[in-house]
Amino acid sequence: MKLFTSLRHLFTVNFLLVAIAPILAIGGITLYSVTTNMQREIAERHLLLARSLAGEVERFLQEPSGLLRQMASILEEERIIMPGQIDVYFDSVLTHYQSFESIWMLDASGKIRHLAPYRRDFLLIDASAQEFFHPPVNTDDLYWSLTSISLQTGNPTLTVSLPLTRGRLIGFLNLGVLHAITKRISIGAQGYAAIIDRDGTIIAHPDQAVVAQRANAGDIELVQQGLQGHEVTMTYSARKMAYIGCVALVPTTKWVIIVTQPVDEAFAGVRRMREILGSGILVATAFALLIALFSLRKTLSPFTQLTLQAEQIAAGEYRFEPLPRYYQEMDNLSRSFTMMSEAIKSREDALRESQEFLHNIVENIPNMIFVKDAEHLRFVQFNKAGETLLGYNREELIGKNDYDFFPVEQADFFVQKDRDVLARRTLLNIPEETIQTKTLGERILHTKKIPILDKNGHPLYLLGISEDITERKHIEDALNKRILALTEPLETGEIAFHDLFNLEDIQKIQDAFAAAMNVASIITTPEGIPITQPSNFCRLCRDVIRNTEKGRTNCFASDAIIGGQNLAGPTIQPCLSAGLWDAGASITVGGRHLANWLIGQVKNEAVDEERLLKYAREIGADEEEFRKALQDVPKMSSEQFQRIATVLFLLSNELSLKAYQNVQQARFIAQRKRAEEEVRLLNAQLEQRVHERTAKLEAANKELQSFAYIISHDLKSPLRAISRLADWLVKDYASCFDDNGKNMAALLIGRVKRMDDLIEGILAYSRIGHVPRPQQAIDLRLLLPEIVVSLAPPPTIAIHIAPDLPIIFSNKADMYTIFSNLIGNAIQFMDKPHGKITISCADIGEFWQFSVADNGPGINPKYHEKIFQIFQTLHPRDEMERIGVGLAIVKKVIKLSGGTIWVNSEEGQGSTFIFTFPKENALPIPREE
C-alpha cells in the first residue's frame, strides 16, 4: 500500500524535508554577514591605528613648535637676553631639547647672525634664497618646510621657521625619532606604517633604507587621497600585489600617515571563515539534494513514459497506451493524454483538409501568388501561376530573393516596395511594374503587396498577388496611341489609314466586296503602296506582271493615278500597266487624302489582246505564260463595271465620313480627359499646398508659443532675481564698494536692464501677426502729440507735426509702436546742438505716405537694409543701450498692414524714414475743429 495517493502530498513532504532554498539563503546571509563584519573590523582597526600614529606624530611636533615660539618671544624682548648672549642661549636650548639639530637666527636681509651649535664659518652667510626665509605662503605664523636628509645625521630633517621683527628664527628638526615610531607598529608579517610629507616623499618607514633613498609614494592612489586631505580606507594595487590601507592626516604639517597590509594577509581570517561556512553549506545542500533527487526520481518516472508517448504523438502516431496506475493525479493525466491524442488527430485531419482546400484554391488562381519572409525577403511560397509566369519551378524559387532572378535595377525596385509595405504595415497597390521572366521575356504586372503581422503587430511575412496585364497593357497602349494619333492629325498631317481603322476589319470587308462583285480589290496609300492584302487578284497581275520589276512599278504608278482624289465620282480607266480596266475612289478625312480603294483587273469588249502581248514583251514577262493567264481574266460589260465602281465610290465616301467622325470623337474625348486630368492635378496640388502651409503655420504657432513661454518664464524669472540681488548689494553694501566696485555694480545693473529689454523686444516681435489686434479709428493729430510727450525730448530738439495728418483705421498700439520708435530713434541719435524732427504725410493714390525726418548724423547707404534686421545696431552696445529690435518691429507691423518702409539718408545729412499705409484702412471721419 502506497504511503501517498496524491502527488501534492508527496511533493509537500519532500520539499519540507529537502529545504535547499532555506539552507542556501540562510547560509549565504550568514556567510556574507560574518565576512563583511570581519572585513569592516579589520579596516576600522587599521584606520584607528593610523589615527593613533597621526596623533603621536602631532604630539611630537608640538614640543619643538612650542619651544620655537617661546624662543621667539624671548628674543623679541631685548631686556631678557642681550645680543652677546644669544649664541649661549641657543646652545643651552640644544642641550636640553634633543629634537633640534641646530637653530639659526637670520637678520632682515637673510644673513645668519646667531646659530647653535656655533660655527664661525657660518656667520653672515646669506640664507635669503632658502625656502624658509621666503615661505611660499603668506603667513605670520610657523612655516613647516618640505623634508630633506640631514648631512650631519643622515636622518630626515624638517625646517621650522618663525618670523621675528628683524628677521626669522630657524629650527632644524631631527625626524629620526619618527623611524622608531613606525618601526614599533606591528601589522602582521608584511604590514607596515609609514609617514609621508606633503610632496609624497617617505620620511619614516620601518625600513630605514626606504627613507634614505628619498622614495616617493605620490603615485599610489591611497597616498593621493591623503595628499588631497581625505582620510579613507581602501584597497589598491602596488608592486603587482593588492593591499588594504588607511590614511590619517597630521594637521600641523599636512603629512600623510598610512597603515597598509597585503589583502591576503589582512583577510586571511575572513577567508578561513568563508571556507568553513561554505563547506557547511555545501554539505547541507548535498544532503538535501540527495533527498530531492530520490523524490524526483520516484515522481518523474511516469512523466518519462508520458514524454515518450508525447513524442510518438508528435511523430503522428496517435495511439496512446495508458500508463500503469501510479497516483491519482497521474491517472487523471493519463486519461487527459488519451483525450488530447484523439482531439489532436481529429483537428489534424480537419486542418489537413482545410490546407488541401486552401492549397487547391491558391494553386488554381490564375494570378501569381508569392510569400516572402519579412526579415530577409526570401521566397517561402509560390503557386503554379507564379511558376508558369517566372519560368522557374518552386524548388528553384524557395529560399532565394529577387536578386537571384532579376536584374539589379528591378530587384532594387521590388525590395524598396517590400520594405515600404512592411514599414507602413498597410496594403500597397502597384498598378504597373515590369519584370524579366525566364521564358516569357519582359512582362507587365499589376501587383498588390500585403504585410502579414503577428499578434503584436510586427510583420512576419509579405504576401504578394500579381496579375499579368501585359496583353491588356499592349491593347491599351495601342488604343491610346490610336486616340493620340486621332487628336492631332488634321494639323500635323501625320495621320495614317491604320490609325483610323482596324485593318483586320477592313480586310474582311474588302475580301467580301471583291468576291461578291467578281473583281480584284486592294487599298493603297496615295502613292500606290499596298495597305491591305490583295483580294481576288487575277493570276495575270499577281503572278506574271507584278513578278517583273518594271511591271510592278507601272502597277503602283497606275494605282496612284486611278485612286487620286475625285469628289464627283469614281475614276474608271484602263490600267496604265497591262491595259485591263480598273476603277478607284479616294478615302479622305477633312480634305486630306489618306488612301485609295481600287478595283478592276477585268476585260471588256474594248480590250486589245495584241497590245497586251506586246506589253508583256516590253516588261520582260514570259509571253506564253502571259497569254495563258490572260485567258483567265474575267470579262464584264462596261455598264456592269460602272455600277460596281459607283458602289465602291459610295463605300469610300462612307469610310471617309466614318473616319472624320472618329477623329472628332477622339479629339473630344482626349480634350475632356486632359481637362479632367488638369483639374485633378490642380486640385491635388492645391490641397497639398494648403495642407503643407497649414502644417507649417501650426508648427510655427506652436514654436512661437513655446518660445514666448520660455522667454517670459524661464529667462525672465532668473533675470528678475539677478536684478533684485544687484539692487540689494548696491543698497546694503554701498559703503564697502570702492570706485571700481561701484562701476562694476552699475555695469551689472545695466546689463540686466539690457537683457530685460532684449527679452521684451523678442516677445513683442514674436507676437506681431499672431495675437489678435483690435482695430479702431485713430486720429493721428491727437496720437502724435501724446507720443512726443511720452518720449520727453530735450529742449534742444524741436519737433514739428504736420497739421493735415489723416484719420486711419488700425490698432492704436501698432501705430504707437511705429511712431514712438521712429521719433525716439531720431531723439536718441541726435548729434546737433539744435535738433529738428519733422513728421509729415502725403497722399500718393492708394496709400498714405508718412515720413519722419531729422537733421541728425545720417546713415551710410550700405547700412540702410541692415538697420531693419532684428538685433542689428550701428553703435556698440557699450556706447549706447540699444538692442536692435525697434526698427525690426516697425517693419513687421507696417508689412502686416500692407505697407512698406525705407530710409533716405547720407552720413552727416540727417535721415528720413518713409513708410506707406493703405488707404483702405482709412476712414473719412470728419474732425471736430
UniProtKB/TrEMBL annotation:
Gene3D superfamilies: 1.10.287.130, 6.10.340.10, Histidine kinase-like ATPase, C-terminal domain, PAS domain. It is an enzyme of class 2 (transferase). Residues 428-481 form the PAC domain. Its EC number is 2.7.13.3. The chain crosses the membrane at residues 12-35, 276-296. It catalyses: ATP + protein L-histidine = ADP + protein N-phospho-L-histidine. Residues 665-703 form a coiled coil. GO terms for biological process: osmosensory signaling via phosphorelay pathway. It is found in: Cell membrane. Keywords: Cell membrane, Coiled coil, Kinase, Membrane, Phosphoprotein, Transferase, Transmembrane, Transmembrane helix. Pfam families: dCache_1 (PF02743), HATPase_c (PF02518), HisKA (PF00512), PAS_4 (PF08448), PocR (PF10114). One of its GO terms (cellular component) is plasma membrane. Residues 354-425 form the PAS domain. Residues 297-349 form the HAMP domain. Residues 710-921 form the Histidine kinase domain. GO terms for molecular function: phosphorelay response regulator activity; phosphorelay sensor kinase activity; protein kinase activator activity. It is a multi-pass membrane protein. SMART domains: HATPase_c (SM00387), HisKA (SM00388), PAS (SM00091). InterPro entries: BphY/WalK/GraS-like, dCache_1, HAMP_dom, HATPase_C_sf, HATPase_dom, His_kinase_dom, HisK_dim/P_dom, HisK_dim/P_sf. PANTHER family: BACTERIOPHYTOCHROME, TWO-COMPONENT HISTIDINE KINASE. NCBIfam families: sensory_box. This is histidine kinase. It comes from Candidatus Moduliflexus flocculans.
